[in-house]
Amino acid sequence: MSEENVEKIRTSLKAWSRGDWDAALKDAAPDMVLDNSTNAGEWRGVHHGAEEIKRMWRLFTEPWERVDIELADVIESRNDRVVTSTQARFYGRDGIELPGPTRSGWIWEFRDGLLVRLTVFNDLSDALEGGLSE
Q1: Which residue has the higher pLDDT, 1 or 9?
Q2: Is 46 in a helix, a strand, or coil?
Q3: Contact by Cβ (8 Å): 110, 7
Q4: Which residues pair with 86 in a beta bridge?
Q5: Domains of the chain, first to last
Q6: pLDDT over 80 at 37, yes or no
Q7: Which residues have C-beta within 8 Å of that of residue 80, sequence separation ≥ 6?
Q8: Coil/strand/helix, residue 26
Q9: Three-class SS string for 64-109?
Q10: Residues 6+ apart with CB under 8 A from 36
Q11: Residue 68: which of 101, 95, 36, 105 has the closest Cα?
Q12: What predicted TM-score, i.e. pTM, was given to this entire model?
């Protein structure tokens, strides 16, 4: 995995935490897919293209005052696929904070320097299995 793609992941997560969806998808292919099908909630599903992904993110973050997602660890995988461990902190309105952080595993797939697919898992071990076995 190139350092350039790892930096793209860091930059995307920082933008995501700011709610800057355009910056978060700056290095995404126009037909990028976000596979969030293993998670519960209204945002569950497979989302295609920037507009659908932005709608999902807005729906996901709407109930919260702030959601911070940080890159906890980068695990190199084969080809242009990388598995990351992320941690999220959720801040509710009126100063309520979920105990945490909440950890998850994400598989990022790049082609020609663009993010083409992001698959989100509730558990890092599931992401490792999916990222390294395919």
Answers
A1: 9
A2: strand
A3: no
A4: 71, 104
A5: 3-133 (3.10.450.50)
A6: yes
A7: 1, 5, 109, 110, 111
A8: coil
A9: CCEEEEEEEEEEECCCCEEEEEEEEEEECHHHCECCCCEEEEEEEE
A10: 43, 44, 45, 46, 47, 56, 120
A11: 101
A12: 0.88
Query: Which one-letter amino acid corresponds to residue 83?
Result: V
Longest C-alpha distance within the chain, in Å?
45
d(CA 120, CA 39): 8
Determine which helix (DSSP H) or strand (DSSP E) holds 60, and give its type and residue range: helix 49-61
Each residue's pLDDT tens digit, 46-67: 999 999 999 988 888 888 898 9
- Closest listed residue to residue 16, CA positions, set 104, 97, 93: 104
Pairing status of strand 45-48 against strand 28-36: antiparallel
Q: Which residue has the tokens 């920037």?
A: 50
C-alpha–C-alpha distance, residues 56 and 62, integer Å: 10
